[in-house]
Amino acid sequence: MFDKTTYINRREKLKQKVKDGIILLPGNDHSPMNYAGNTYRFRQDSSFLYFFGLDIPGLAGIIDVNNNEDTLFGDDATLDDIVWMGPQPSLKENGEKAGIKKTFPLKELSAKLREAVSKKRAIHYLPPYRGENKILLYRLLNIPINEQKEKASAGLIKGVVSLRSIKENQEIKELERAMDTAYLMHTTAMKMARPGVFEGDIAGVIEGIALSSGTMTSFPVILTKHGETLHNHDHSNKLEKGDLLLVDAGCESPLHYATDHTRTIPVGGKFSPLQKDIYQIVLDSQIKAIQSIKPGITNLDIHIKACEVIASGLNDLGFMKGDVKQAVEQGAHALFMPHGLGHMIGLDAHDMEDLGENFVGYNNEVKRKNIFGTGNLRLAKKLQEGFVITVEPGIYIIPQLIQKWEKEKKFTEFIDYEKTKSCIGFGGIRIEDDILVTEDGCRVLGKPIPKSVEEVENIVQG
Question: What letter would DSSP give residue 39?
Answer without folding.
Answer: E
